[in-house]
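Journal club prep — side note

Before the paper discussion, L.F. wants everyone to see what a predicted structure for a comparable chain looks like in token form. Sequence:
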Amino acid sequence: MLINNAAQGAPHDELGSIPADGVLNAVDVNAAGPLRLVQFLLPNLLAAPDPIVVNVTSRLGSLSAQTSGTFADLSTSYAYKMSKAAQNMLTIALAQDRQGRVRCWAVHTGKLATDMGQADASKDPRTAAAQLRELVDSGDRTSPRFCALGERDLPW
């Protein structure tokens, strides 16, 4: 199992003030970083009896939810939303490329009470870790999958 759990955001700025370097950095950490790890560890994954790649993502990377305005009231940076959407696409591309040989999931952990979390975040990271372990142990064969811990699957 490979769990890609790094994340990089950026401050929320007005459109005219968004530095492209901040967006590129977030995409590098949130999407290209997991790609590099999968590339490096692919021989190990393919040698495992039931390999899975879990990309810890965000519901904010859902194009469907963003299009419908579900998160329009949140002041989240362009960099974070764009990079998490790219990470979700990576999950889909990996699942299609590995065609059932490696399960690939994008997992939204919930509003974690961490330094990077939203002000109203209350979920203990230890709870999220236990839920992730339970999810992986469930044996669900769906791939690609975009889900939220303890909730139903999310729209891409």
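L.F.'s comment for the group: The longest strand covers residues 52-57. Keep this in mind when we get to the figures.
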